[in-house]
Amino acid sequence: MSLFSGWRAAFRIARRDALRAKGRSALVVAMIALPVLGVTAADLTYRSAVPTVAEELTADLGAADARFTDQGMGPVRLEQMPDGILWGLPEDAPETLPEDERKSVDVPATFPKGSRYLTEQSVPASVTTRHGITDTRITELDIADPLLRGRVELTDGAYPKARNEMAATRAFIKASGLSVGDRVTVRGPGQTYTLTGAVELPAELAEESLFALPGAVIAPWQRAADKDEDKEILPPQTHVVEWLVQGPPGAGVSWPDVLAANEKGVVVRARQVVLDPPPDSEVPMAATMWGGESRSAELTAAAATVAAMAMLEIVLLAGPAFAVGARRSRRQLGLVGSCGGTRSQVRAVVLAGGAVLGGVGAVVGVGAGFALTALFRPMIEDFAGSRFGELTVRPWEILGIAVLGLVTGVLAALAPAIVAGRQSVLESLTGHRGVRRGSRVLPVVGSVVLASGVAVAVYGGVSGNTTLVAGGSVLAELGLLCCIPVIVGFLGRLGRRLPLTPRIALRDAARNRGRTAPAVAAVMAAVAGSVAIATYTSSSTAEKEYDHQPNLTAGTAALLTADPAQKAELPHARTAVEQNLPVSGAPARLGRVWAGSDCSVYYEEEDGCGSLELVKPTGKAHSCPLKGKGAKELALRISADEHKRLMNSPACMDENHTMISLGSDSNKIVVGDAALLTSYVKLDDPAAAKALAAGVPVLLNPAYAKDGEVTLKAVHRYSERDKNHASHPGTARTTTERLKVYVAPDRFAATPSIRMIMPQQTADRLGLRSEELGSIYTLTREPTDAEQQSVDAALEQAGKNAYVMTANSAERKDDEVILLILALFAGVVTLGAAAITTGLSKADAEADLTTLSAVGAPPGVRRSLSGFQCLVVALTGVLLGTAAGLVPAIALRLTDLREALADMRVDPMQSAYTPIVMPWGTIALLALVVPVLAGLLAAALTSSRLKLARRAG
């Protein structure tokens, strides 16, 4: 028989066998198709979402040929790159240009003759919304002009046609609560406009902005400001003017046109220049540019790693299915051998089965990838924040993905083919499996590889070599993979004292390691990656939370006056806050205190300001050991935990945190009463409240106290204005007071923005100046955008001189989403692997189940046995995957620790705190919820009724 005829017969047998065992075939096809589907969809999405140069130009220029921008430097020669983004002054340009020499540039004069253009002006503004007021950007541009197609697209309503009309982006409409037909008022000029349409920027779907006709907003705003001093002036340095130019028909805007505009101080981004750039010899700026290093090699390596891991997952999951199929077809394979078929021809039959199912899976996966990408395209575009230019398909990449699925199917059938070829014809025909002892060398090799991989990963983490970390982690996982058959075999011994069903499940898993071990390995591989990323993410989040410097105590909001002279408006502002924010309880009074002139308000001359300072006592007990002589040696000698304790100590607290103050300067001393202690400081101590009532200040940072007293140094220096009008006139003088204080416990030194609370009577007694600054509120939850807009509008009506500041919290939403996605991914893989193994177990152990029923086992045994078999695979894989995932996570955290220690050598106050935080939520979901869910699903989907088996012979 020729080679071609032999393989043709093998493929014919494989095709018929696949059609005969439709359930098992569908299982293998699904396993191969799912990864192919994911890679195909990812490739299509990436290629379509990443815009081409032409698509980027359309998003920036619309249908125009170029964008001309005056850089505001006057008619001075510039140099730019052909992309129109990089530009600068030539080397021979003067370093400075006196203000009186700057002249405005006649930008339209730099356009090619015969050009048509649109003027684009934009300015930030505050506008009204359905909820209140919000900040946005208004652009004056005739967006109905055909030159804007591709950059601005109308989605609802109509383009603005009159000066009192505007269009809004869909993102602005959603955030503001407005709709087409509503009216919006621009604060400042107080002009009202009607929203005639909703538009979107295909490249910036999340942009919240407004569009008006040229001359509809900015010019009237400026005229109103010129006539009325009370009108809000245009924000400085924010008024941007650009020109969209359509060149002469057939000519466009060329590189000589760009160079001519550069001579006048204008930067140009031209379509035909970007698409067909001139040679470097014609680009003056090219001589001074450095080329960036290509990252294509790194991206290729990353892509190859991901592809290899995907193939490994499929082989591990699909391999047992082919093994079980080969065993169930052993009589057929034996007949092939009895008819003169060689061992190679028997192997060819099994390999042909892998090729057939792999090819079908590849085709199904590619087709489903196209369908899902097209179906979920709008959702993907909204998530990415930009529209696809078009669905970009690269045939060779799609073909490569399909070939990858085909090769994976063949590789998954390789080991079963070798085993089938080794079986004797007699064993195949009689149905005996034969007995093979497990390899004793493989576990030893696996243990050595595991230990070596852990050592390499740890060394890579300590030395800062991430390549060694990745390589060591892969080695450790491969070593653990080699040990799985022994671990699975050990499981059989654990069931001696368990009830019948779990005992059978454990022994079945141990006896059939060929299908149990790969499934456990597949679960382990998926869980290891998820746990590694989740552990690193949780640890980094904990580090960011430690380094985070809050501006206010969590769960509070501060109502502050922007102009203390207008403090009479505070009662109305308090009403606005209480009606629009989720506050609880009465507000706490907050006042500011200072000595001499208040330069933060009047911006007086440098020598006309007073100052107020808490003087820190000298001595070891009051000085931060991480500052000054010997600090670097100490920082490198102590542990990270000890370094963290020192940085959080009262002596180092002010050195470690930025000088955020609720008062007028950095002294962090405020005037308040007992309500401020309980609502903001969270110091619920009757002794502290009693001290404030008696005129004794409460010191929150004990490092400034000595023998229960603090030193307060005040410089009373008055400007000429205050000498004539201040309530505390007098000549410059310096006073030093020793004040008895109530010293709060050390933990209150970390109270944001406040160091000491002074009673009003004490400030008056010391001759200090004080005034009401605002109020502190306790929030029941974080305010929504609508509530924030509402309170801003209410404060505007109350007098425009107060604002609300809420506590800034460390960002965790993105990290939480990452952890959830990782848990879901690993959970799906775990469920899939466990379900596959359970199905194979049922197919492979049907005779055992029949025997159980024959000896009187209840019908529910089939259900419970399937559930426990699924549970064993899922739980074992999750536990091993968790252990494997900790290796790269810990090694990478060691790399971060090394970098932190390097920074600490430069500045001992730099945090070296690099914790390793276990993602217990993710691990609990994977180790408890997913295995139990897998077992319950397997039990629920298993029939308890016995199917009669046909007698052989």
UniProtKB/TrEMBL annotation:
Membrane topology term reads: Multi-pass membrane protein
Q: Which InterPro entries match?
A: ABC3_permease_C, Membrane_comp_ABC_pdt
Transmembrane segments in this chain: where?
301-325, 346-376, 396-420, 441-462, 474-495, 516-536, 817-836, 870-892, 912-941
Q: Name one Pfam family in it.
A: FtsX
Q: Which UniProt keywords apply?
A: Cell membrane, Membrane, Transmembrane, Transmembrane helix
Cell location: Cell membrane
Q: Does the keyword Nuclease apply?
A: no
Sequence ranges assigned to domain ABC3 transporter permease C-terminal in this UniProt record: 306-424
The chain's coiled-coil residues are none
A cellular component term (GO) from this record? plasma membrane
Q: Which domain of life is it from?
A: Bacteria
The protein's name in its UniProt record: ABC3 transporter permease C-terminal domain-containing protein
Lineage of the organism: Bacteria, Bacillati, Actinomycetota, Actinomycetes, Kitasatosporales
